[in-house]
């Protein structure tokens, strides 16, 4: 067992992972903690924090490690992480994302940006920034970003054993989905080698982001009575595109019969319809397009469509005009 490279005054090395539902942060935190405790002999703990269990909702996972003779008596969110892992670019600029980050923190960002651009994007005052295109790796290996990021975490941590994590992955995935083990191991190995790391000292370019506990906005003096929504219709701006994990459905109107199965199945009302006059002169609803602003890429609509009018595609291979239009008339128009 390696000595922990750095600890806080309670003796913990602390990790915070920021993600959204569907990216596997919860499982990653669990595997990481189990590998460290059961395979490497540290003491430690892990828990996740999330709201409704659905794709696209915010998820945080927290992991603590300490020496075997230190008791774990803290079970609170990690506020000053030694390692911060941001599972997707789209959430990287959310308020408080860098809260508690110091010069001693290693920030891992899943991005296709180079490390200097990523620093400017984040507004990182100081710390070690690691960039890895985990999404590209996951799409190519047909896995999820979590195992690629676990590989990067192990490689840059200085104490997490890659062998222990691989063993834990074999046990975790092997129980339910043994066929996915080789691809996940390959994803992990690519994550542990395909990253770029750079240390930034405080140079005054960006301000420090000390941890602050925000106060409660609503209380007994100003809470609207009885669950009233004072800003009605606020979800019309909801943009779920950040939650897509690399794949999108594409609607081929040439094959669509407007049967409506996809509309019933889609949890986010992505399909847009228009009333038209049918062949018998009667009005009928015809599917027009798919609105990608609300599409989180769950692909349930593809599974339900028995006419193969909806098909799965890698998002970055689909032409922007197709995403803007929301449909194709022929599958050849996609790329
Ligand atoms: S399920 Fe398929 S055929 Fe039916 S409306 Fe949706 S896209 Fe069209
Ligand atoms: S993938 Fe299909 S079912 Fe899922 S949110 Fe997008 S349009 Fe709706």
Characterise this structure.
With about 325 residues, this protein is α/β, with parallel strands linked by helices. It has two domains: about 15-200, 3-Layer(aba) Sandwich (Pyruvate-ferredoxin Oxidoreductase, domain 3); about 235-335, Alpha-Beta Plaits (2-Layer Sandwich), CATH 3.30.70. The protein has helices at about 25-40, 115-120, 135-140, 145-155, 160-175, 180-190, 260-265, 300-305, 320-325, and strands at about 15-20, 45-50, 60-65, 85, 105-110, 125-130, 195-200, 245-250, 270-275, 285-290, 310-315. The chain has a seven-stranded mixed beta sheet with strand order 2-3-1-4-5-6-7, sandwiched between helices. Strands 8-11 form a two-stranded antiparallel ribbon. The chain has a two-stranded antiparallel sheet with strand order 9-10. β5 (about 105-110), α2 and β6 (about 125-130) form a beta-alpha-beta unit. α1 (about 25-40) packs across α5 and α3 (about 135-140) packs antiparallel against α6 (about 180-190). The termini are far apart. The structure holds iron/sulfur cluster (2 copies). One iron/sulfur cluster binds near residues 256, 262, 287, 305 and 307.
Q: Tags for this entry?
A:
Pyruvate-ferredoxin Oxidoreductase, domain 3; 2 domains; seven-stranded mixed beta sheet; two-stranded antiparallel sheet; 11 strands; binds iron/sulfur cluster; globular; alpha/beta; Alpha-Beta Plaits
Shape: globular
Instruction: Encode the helix/strand succession as letters.
Output: EHEEEEHEHHHHEEHEEHEH
Distance N terminus to C terminus?
A: 50 Å
Major sheet: order of its strands?
Answer: 2-3-1-4-5-6-7
Low-confidence stretches: none
Number of helices: 9
What is the overall pLDDT average?
91
Indicate the percent of residues in helices.
25-40%
CATH fold descriptor of the largest domain: Pyruvate-ferredoxin Oxidoreductase, domain 3
How many β-strand stretches? 11
Structural class: alpha/beta
Bound molecules: iron/sulfur cluster
Per CATH, the superfamily of the largest domain is: Pyruvate-ferredoxin oxidoreductase, PFOR, domain III
CATH architecture of the largest domain: 3-Layer(aba) Sandwich
Return the CATH class of the largest domain. Answer: Alpha Beta
Count of separate structural domains: 2
Specify the biggest β-sheet: 7 strands, mixed
């Amino acid at each position: 067992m390696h000595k922990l490279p750095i600890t806080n005054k309670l003796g913990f090395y602390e990790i915070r992972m920021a993600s959204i539902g569907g990216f596997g942060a919860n499982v990653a935190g669990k595997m990481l903690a189990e590998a460290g405790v059961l395979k490497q002999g540290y003491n430690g703990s892990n828990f996740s924090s999330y709201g409704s269990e659905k794709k696209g909702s915010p998820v945080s996972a927290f992991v603590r490690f300490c020496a075997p003779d230190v008791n774990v008596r803290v079970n609170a969110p990690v506020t000053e992480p030694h390692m911060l892992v941001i599972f997707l670019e789209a959430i990287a600029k959310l308020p408080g994302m860098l809260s508690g980050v110091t010069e001693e923190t290693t920030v891992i960002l899943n991005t296709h940006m180079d490390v200097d651009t990523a620093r400017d994007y984040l507004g990182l005052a100081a710390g070690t920034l690691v960039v890895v295109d985990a999404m590209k790796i996951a799409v190519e290996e047909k896995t999820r970003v979590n195992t690629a990021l676990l590989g990067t975490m192990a490689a840059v941590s200085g104490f997490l054993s890659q062998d222990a994590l691989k063993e834990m992955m074999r046990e975790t995935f092997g129980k339910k989905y043994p066929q996915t083990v080789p691809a996940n191991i390959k994803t992990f190995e690519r994550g542990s080698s395909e990253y770029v790391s750079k240390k930034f000292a405080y140079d005054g370019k960006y301000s420090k982001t000390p941890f602050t506990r925000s106060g409660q906005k609503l209380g007994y003096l100003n809470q609207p009575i009885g669950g009233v929504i004072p800003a009605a219709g606020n979800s019309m701006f909801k943009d779920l595109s950040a939650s897509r994990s690399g794949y999108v459905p594409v609607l081929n109107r040439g094959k669509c019969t407007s049967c409506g199965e996809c509309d019933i199945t889609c949890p986010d009302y992505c399909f847009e319809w228009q009333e038209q006059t049918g062949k018998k002169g009667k009005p009928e609803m015809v599917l027009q397009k798919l609105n990608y602003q609300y599409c989180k890429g769950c692909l349930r609509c593809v599974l339900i469509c028995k006419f193969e009018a909806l098909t799965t595609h890698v998002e970055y291979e689909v032409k922007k005009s197709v995403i803007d239009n929301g449909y194709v008339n022929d599958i050849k128009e996609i790329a």
